[in-house]
Structures are given as structure tokens and as C-alpha cells.
Amino acid sequence: MAKRLSIRDIANELQISKTTISFILNGKAKEKRISDELAEKVMKHVAQRAYKPNQLAKSLSTGKTMMIGLMVENISDYFFAQVAYHIEELAYQHGYRIIYCSTDNDLHKTQELISMFRERHVDGYIITAPAGLEKDVQGLLDDGLPVVLFDRYLKGVDTSYVILDNYKASYDATKYLTDQGFENIAFVELDSDQSQMHDRREGYLQAVADAHLAPLIKKIPFTSDFDQKVKELVKFIRKSEDVDAIFFATNYLAFSGIKALNQLKMHTPQDVAIVAFDDHEVFNIYSPTVTAVAQPIKKLAQQSINALLKMLDAKDGTQTLEKIEVAAELIIRDSTKV
User: Fold this and answer.
1) What is the DSSP letter of 1?
2) Are 227 and 244 contained in the same domain?
């Protein structure tokens, strides 16, 4: 097996000290007042020799592994998959690699994953946190590890977060329905303590209250599978004969709701109008097309990775917290047009 090329070899070939080579390869040439000519000479030689640095040695010298832990609820979900793609793309442009995983909104699993990332010495964390993770996130912060919460925040934990303005998005969608003349609007949500679900429910409640209408909320167990959700919704819709519009708090709840309506041979929007929170590419293909609250996925991803990179790049170790709320867009389609 051929001997791996080392910094010592590069230094001997160019008759330059190993320290100077290391500074140049780690992007510290200007900081160490190394001339542009010398830095360019070293980089050209390194490229010609196809030198690849030892990542372990590099991490020991820089104190960084150049890895970020991304923990989302479900990486196979359309929303989280798109977010992960954009975060990985932007992180790569800044020299970082992403290790990502699904928490399944399970507290114990999330705690184990954090322990695993700690063992791998990732440089920072972007976390879609389940309820109850407050002490674990605070522990990361106490150890000086940068954390950005995504999609939801944790009350009592003072850290950066990037979320959608869920309250306003839900309020606006419900108000649109009341303005269209719908009077019996149901809200179907997950039975969950997640902050974003709470904010979506509160937005709905305020909008129906402002219209002097009665609320109707159906909670679906978080752990139920697709068919179980359909059965629950069939029962709910049969029982709620007066419902003329349903606002689904997630797109996958909307998928279950659409199947439930099909089983009941109910037509949209003639029998019941529907709105989904979280747009999906198939909503513009369905017949009728589905009105949806669209989250600006790329913007959310950019804000999240940028907030983390600022903390990772802080020279003095201070971490400026950023608490960012991004506006949603309501896309009107055929499922609410009567």
C-alpha cells in the first residue's frame, strides 16, 4: 500500500516549515501574515500532489470536526426531507458535512442521538425538538455547543431558533374560510405538546372567535399510522354532520382526511372544503387541487444554517442568539372555492 502523503512530505518538497504549511491549509495565511505568493505556491503544489489532509489530525489542530448534527422529526417526510437537502447543500458550501437522523418525536430516542453526536464531537446542532428535551438542550448550551432549534422552540430554554409564524399562518387560513362564508370549520391536529401545533391551534381558535363561530377540534394520536388516522377521521366526519370546512394541521393529516372523505363519498368543495397546513407538490395535482399553507422551505433552511454558522465562526466564543419567525403563504386552490 502506498504511503499516505503528509504535511511533512509537502514541507520537505517545498523546503517550507510544517507550521507554515498547516497555517495555509487551514485558511490562516492572512492571519499569520503569510504572503499571497507563498500561499498560492503551496496550494498549487498540494493540488498537483492530490494531497488529502488527515481529518482526525486536522480536527485535533483546529478543534473542529467540520460536522453538524441535524435532528428532524422524520427525514422521510416531504417537509423535513426538503429542509435537510437545503441545509446540507448550504453547509457543504461552508466546508461542513451533515449527519442527520430522525427522532420520531420520541424523547428517549432523541436523548440517545444527542449522546451519539456528542461522542462524534459534532461542532453544532440543528434540532427539531420533542417536548421534554429542555434539560438536554440546556446541557449542550452549558458546554458551549452551538444549538439552533428548528420548526419549534422550547419554553424556558434561551437558544436560537428558526420557526414559522404558525399562529398568524393558521389565523389567516381560518379567516380566509370564514370570509368565504364557511360557518362550521373543524380543526384536525395531532395530539401533541409541540409548540408549533399549539400555535396553529391558537391561531384557528382566535379566527373562529373573531367570526363569532364555535370551534370544533379533533385530536389524532401522533403515533397512529395512516389507516388508523383514516378510521378516526371517518368516525369524526360522520359524527360532525354540520361541518362545511376542515383545516388539517399537517399535510399528512390532510392525506388521511382526503381518503376518509373519499370513503364517505363526499365531494370537495361541494360537501366540505379543505385546507392543509404545509403545502405538498401533490396538492397541485389532486382533483380538486388543495388550498394549503406553504412554508418557505429554502428560506427556513437558510436561516437555520446561517444562524448556526455565525455561532460556529464566532472568534471570541460568544454566541449571539437569533430568534427568527418566518411568514407563510396561503395558496388558494380549488378545494375551498364554492
Assistant:
1) -
2) yes
188 and 199 in a single domain? The answer is yes
3-state DSSP call for residue 102?
strand
Q: Which domain holds residue 270?
A: 166-295+330-336
**What phi, psi does 237 have (nearest 5°)?**
-70, -40
CA distances from 319 to 155, 236, 253, 310, 311 (A): 19, 48, 38, 8, 5
Length of the chain: 338
CA distance 284 to 300: 22
Distances (CA, A) of 170 to 158, 280, 291: 25, 17, 13
End-to-end, the C-alpha distance of the chain in Å comes to 73
Q: How far is CA 293 from the centre of its chain?
A: 16
Rounded-to-integer distance, Cα 58 and Cα 38, Å: 21
User: Per residue in 232-256, pLDDT tens?
Assistant: 999 999 999 899 999 999 999 999 9
Please tell me the predicted confidence (pLDDT) of residue 56: 43
CA–CA dist 24, 139 (Å, integer) = 35
